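Issue 218. Parser rejects a valid record. Input:
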Amino acid sequence: MVKHCYTVARHTFVVRMSDTEKGISLPSYDPFAAEDDDTCGLLFALTVDDTFYPSVKGELIGEFDCGAAYFGVYRLADGTYQMLVSPPDGQYCGLMQASPDFKEAVIATRGRDSLRTFAVNNALMLMYAFASAGMGTLLVHASVIKNNDRGYLFLGKSGTGKSTHSGLWLKYIEGSELLNDDNPVVRIDDEGATVYGSPWSGKTPCYKNDSARIGAFVQIKQKPENRIVRELPLQAFAVLLPSMSTMKWDKQVYGGVCDSVGRLIEKVPLYALGCRPDKEAAEVCHAEVTK
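Output the parser choked on:
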């Protein structure tokens, strides 16, 4: 059994794989490779074992689509989770069984090497999000620009223009760089919050082991004119919560995420930006969130 250790946003986790899982490749994790695999300080451990098959099937309790993958969720009487992982348009390629606290899990993969890699990658993302819930850590669906040592997270449903707006900052706002384009990690502390790059960046290969203190969250909406306003805390909570990776039917996970979002809106402003995909939109947004 070979162990691979990674640290993302100061949380360390381990992937264990036997020689039979050689076809699984995780290059996006290379910038986050870590030498220390002290089991006492691990966020979680995932074992890849294609011979695994559960002796008992759990009860179906829900399903969700995170955009890139589909999960069918089952639970045993003792709280153990079983999850089927599938691409949006295909049959399942992974069967994972996880402890109730998401600290330990095993996954069996099937299909082509690309599908097996897909299953392991999405299982790791899910384990990270749920194991860190309650630790002031959030996995956010957002595109992030780092500008002058501050991170600006652009939120919105798929297709609303998050990546497009990041591209406008890269083109027109001096000192901008892309930190992550799909699933950055946010950690909250007493002074504010920090956004970190991650191995999960959607269709854009941006896997940076870097971070920045958060300057603002910005909800992107397509509008005929460029206008930005700061939202009140209640509306900010309503916008931020759906952007977080969570499970509503798990009280511990969902409660931890809600608590973290509540702390977050006390420390970081959220703006609503109605905009066109043009230079002025980036300039209007930059001027407001950095003043």
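Fixed in the parser; the record now loads. Residues 27 and 199 are 9 Å apart (CA to CA).
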